[in-house]
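Inputs:
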Amino acid sequence: MKGEVIFVGAGPGDPELITLKGMRALGRADRVIYAGSLVNPALLQHCRPNTPAHDSANLTLEDVIKLMREGVVQGETVVRLHTGDPSVYGAIQEQMDALAELSIPYSVIPGVSSVFAAAAALKREFTLPDVSQTLILTRMAGRTPVPDKEDLSALAQHRASMAIFLSVQDMGQVVRELLQGYEPTTPIAVVYKASWPEEQVIMGTLANIVAKVRTAGIRKTAQILVGDFLNTEYARSKLYDPQFTHEFRQGSPEQ
Ligand code: SAH
C-alpha cells in the first residue's frame, strides 16, 4: 500500500497555531477528514485547490475508516485533522487500531492543546514552585463515563493545578466536586474558545464562578482551569536563580 494516513493536531483554533509539520502534511494531502465542530475551516486553505474535505461531525467510526481506506488503496495521503492535540479526548485510538487491523500505515503529528492556549490567554504558568508541580487534565463524566477512581472530588484532594475539559455545561456540579478538596477562595478561570476571535475569559473563585459563567452564557467549548497557580503568590524558580548551578550554567556563590 503506497498511501498513508496522517493524524494531525490542528491546534486550538487560531489557524497559526498548527505546527509547520502539520501544515505541510495538509499541503500534500489528497483528502482530508476534519472534525468540523472545533477545527477552524481556515486551515483547509493549506490544502491544494479542490482537495476533498470531509467533515466527520456526522460520520461514524466505520464511515471514517472507509474513507481512509478508499484513499489509501489509491495511494493517497489522507490527513485526519483533530482539534488541539489528538491524544487528548480525540478518539484516535480506535481509528489507529482499525487502521492497524487493515495494515494501513499511519503516523501522528502533535498539536497545541486548548489547555495550553487557555494558559496563554490567561498569561499564567501551571507549575509554580511552592504552589504546584503537577497539572491534572480531566473531565466530568458525561455520556462517556469516567472511572470512579478519577472522580473530580477525588482528584481535587491533591489541590494541584487542574484543567477540566468537556464540562462547562455542568459548572454547578464541577464546583461542588472541586470544593471537596480546594478552598472556596481558590481561583478558577473559564476560557471560552481560547485563541479564536470570540475568546472570552471569566475569572473568579470557587465561591462565585457559577453565577459568572451563567451570566456570560457559556455552555460549551471552554477550558476550566483551577488552582492556586492563578494567584500571584509563589516562590521564584530555581532554574533562573543566580545561586543555582545546572547543566548549562555555573551558579555564583551566595553573597
Ligand atoms: N484534543 C482537544 C480536546 C478535544 S475535547 C485539545 O487538545 O484541546 C473538546 C473540549 O476541549 C471542549 O469541550 C473544551 O473543553 C476543550 N476545547 C477545545 N478547543 C477549545 C478552545 N479553543 N478553548 C477552550 N476550550 C477548548
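Helices lie at 20-27, 61-73, 93-101, 114-122, 152-155, 171-178, 209-216. Flag for discussion at group meeting.
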